[in-house]
Amino acid sequence: MAVKSLKLNSGYSIPMIGLGTWLSKPNEVAHAVESALKSGYRHIDAAACYDNEGEVGRGIKASGVDRSEIFVTSKLWNTHHKPEDVEEAVDATLKDLQLDYLDLYLIHWPVAFKKGATLKDRFPINPENEQIHVIDVPIEDTWKAMEALVQKGKIRSIGVSNFTREKIEQLWKTATIKPAVNQIEIHPYFQQNSFVKWMQDNGIVVEAYSPLGNNIYGLLRGVDDPKIHEIAARLGKQPAQVIINWVLQRNIVVLPKSVTPERIAANLETFELPQDAMDAISSLDRNHRYNFPARLGANIFGEKTEEELRKAVEGWKAAQRKLKEEAAGKS
User: How do beta strands 131-132 and 134-135 pair?
Assistant: First the structure.
């Protein structure tokens, strides 16, 4: 089955399977992007803070696929939320990707940092408290700057990532262009059913990042769940393929990550899961969010207490001090 596309509120279409590039190691990304595009992918999901957009750009060039056939997403990092800084971030991304425009540009997180000393300074530290330097920039102001870049032709569609319903509704009050997309964490252990339905009912395309789970927290991933493996064996498919198609059947864009050519190609295979398999995967939901940067001290999803956030920040600061001490001891 061919990969389907969804229509965005901007009028453009987004392919429902894209190659994720988060946590890909240096020197692997270019080959992964090239392999993906040669395998038939037409959607690449990138971000400034992944610090690999130069490699993504080289992979796009090496693939030989015409630019007009590829849907490329990038994301505005937290250091560039001030309206006067947004275009600088977009221009840097376009230069790294070797592109003239972006198909989709997202606000990566609904939290702003003080601008760093350099463009690549992603987590500036406040010297007064040793914390990541979070500042207050109204998200409406950031959005206005992104809308202006749509008018300039540097971006075709704009959206958000890691936004709650409340933050989207807040943005709607002043937005001239409504968010086309919300890219959020979705996997069998964190399905977000009611939120997904609300967005789809309101014309927002939902994108699922980390659909297979990820390895950075040392927790069981959905792709490793015995029930997923049981379904895969019964259908003669790979566990990753089962999850990817479970996401697709929910009418959600899915962004699996791999750097292995065989897996990249396998992840593009689409098929229909029987209802009993869909139901079995639905039963795995634990409402378990993995990706929450509590070290920022910002209650991004409204799910933590002040004490939980304080402990997370203090724990991160202690870990950073230990790293500095260890580095000093080696010098």
Answer: unpaired
Instruction: Read off the amino acid at residue 254.
Output: V
Place of tokens 């230990």: 322
Q: How far is 83 from 146, CA to CA, in rounded Å?
A: 8
Q: How confident is the model at residue 202 (pLDDT cuts 50, 70, 90)?
A: very high
How many angstroms separate the CA atoms of 315 and 331, rounded? 25
**pLDDT tens digits, one per residue of 150-181:** 999 999 999 999 999 999 999 999 999 999 99
Handedness of CA 9, 12, 16, 21 (dihedral sign): negative
Query: Which stretch of DSSP H or E encloses residue 131?
Result: strand 131-132
Q: Looking at 41, 50, 189, 209, which residue is catalytic?
A: 50
In whole angstroms, give the CA distance from residue 314 to residue 294. Answer: 10
User: What average pLDDT does this structure show over 241-249?
Assistant: 98
Whether 290 is catalytic is no
| Sequence-distant (≥ 6) Cβ neighbours of residue 286 within 8 angstroms | 189, 190
**Chain position carrying tokens 């038939």:** 40
What mean pLDDT comes out for the span 75-82?
98
DSSP assignment of 203-257 equals TPEEEEESTT--STT----GGG-HHHHHHHHHHT--HHHHHHHHHHTTT-EE--B
Conformation bin of residue 17: beta by default, left when phi > 0, alpha when psi is -120 to 50: beta
Give the tens place of pLDDT for each residue, 273-313.
999 999 999 999 999 999 999 999 999 999 999 999 999 99
User: Could you report the per-residue pLDDT of 311-326, keeping only the tens digit for each?
Assistant: 999 999 999 999 988 8
Look-up: residue for tokens 């392919």? 15
Q: Closest by alpha carbon to 156, among 14, 5, 3? A: 14
Torsion of CA 119, 320, 46, 190, to 10 degrees: -150
- Exposed, middle or buried, 273 (CB in 10 Å: 0-12/13-18/19+)? buried
